[in-house]
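look at this fold:
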Amino acid sequence: MTVSKNSEMNMGELSTVFSAVPTHKPVKKQIQFVEDKQEFSRFPTKTGRRSLSRSISQSSTDSYSSAASYTDSSDDETSPRDKTQVNTKGSSDFCVKNIKQAEFGRREIEIAEQDMSALISLRKRAQSEKPLAGAKIVGCTHITAQTAVLIETLVALGAQCRWTACNIYSTQNEVAAALSEIGVAVFAWKGESEDDFWWCIDRCVNTEGWQPNMILDDGGDLTHWMYKKYPNVFKKIRGIVEESVTGVHRLYQLSKAGKLCVPAMNVNDSVTKQKFDNLYCCRESILDGLKRTTDVMFGGKQVVVCGYGEVGKGCCAALKALGAIVYVTEIDPICALQACMDGFRVVKLNEVIRQVDVIITCTGNKNVVTRDQLDRMKNGSIVCNMGHSNTEIDVASLRTPELTWERVRSQVDHVIWPDGKRVILLAEGRLLNLSCSTVPTFVLSITATTQALALIELYNAPEGRYKQDVYLLPKKMDEYVASLHLATFDAHLTELSDEQAKYLGLNKNGPFKPNYYRY
């Protein structure tokens, strides 16, 4: 057997590796539009646009990081919507916290580029061919330094981009300013109100003289805003790339109802997303988020992790390594058996609710932790969410007159019961790692590279290759993304001999696993 060089693939070959097959999964989550928003009293109470709450019906997802901004959203109470800002090129087609932070944001982006070498490599390989020339991409993701590297890659490949945030807490203000400075129309800032959130999405979509033809979404809010408010524009979209469980569920709902009129690529279920972003990323970022917000010591603490999917597995592994006593709740017998074999006790939440110190939700479901269970938690318990939306913890039920909310740190609230008991709620039930800490840049390079390739494929696919359905990326594309990142570790792939390839019935260049293979 011989050792091969890292696999190469030019942009002309990208389209040939796609033989994506539409997939259909049973979906329980119902599509929710902005009209379905559940209203509740806000904390802290402020008037006008400065409210920090957002409807619990909306999604906030798990893919990108949120480093602390140079200036917190509370530093200036003036809403960016009330400011007139212009970049050095004379453009005002953006709305960010402070355009003067662009220089700081540029430094953040340059730091991120150092650990996203594979995405930069893809940019350099394809830049001369401009595979996205003519593409007008509207995006709704976390706006961080890592996302900025992806956006600037899309621009370098020929695309025009307009961008907004999928989470009201995850935007790095200085990065949003840096993108706006180079001409990307960004409408986002840390600490948006719900009204701001939907206004920003609308400004990205509804602008004179510019009509999007591609969507990159994280959570489905942008897709469904366009579907509901701008159906004629939506019908002209050439492709949607979605990278979250919540957003993918919404796409399958549209497809099942026969209302999905454009092809969509399900990046969330690609191997490079599931096994790296969801598992390895959360294994590191769960501790980062908890430590930054609470300074808690985990040795000997009793922790319940609700859900043992890839995110739950990562969280459990990290907590166990620090000496925590970890329980798992699960509805799926296969995941439950995996948890047992990994050394965790599988319980019902009600069995341990009075004794645990920390509850972490990782299910993507709603009302995983109810008001009744919160009432029975002991003093000083910590509750947080690592799942895909802010519906897992019943935060709305805590906004009642008999309970007092006390903001003790950014994204840290003490909810105080009449008897003096305090429960520590992090990020108001939104995604902990994206709201309160950072996510490893290298992992985000893997996801971003997958997103870029999916956009290139959908945009350049000949008519008829993709119908009005939801598609998975083929194994060949997952393998290509992985191969681009091996150089970081100085890893050398072994190459099959002709005899070995024939024996296994494989092409020497891959794919090496069938579509049904479980990694």
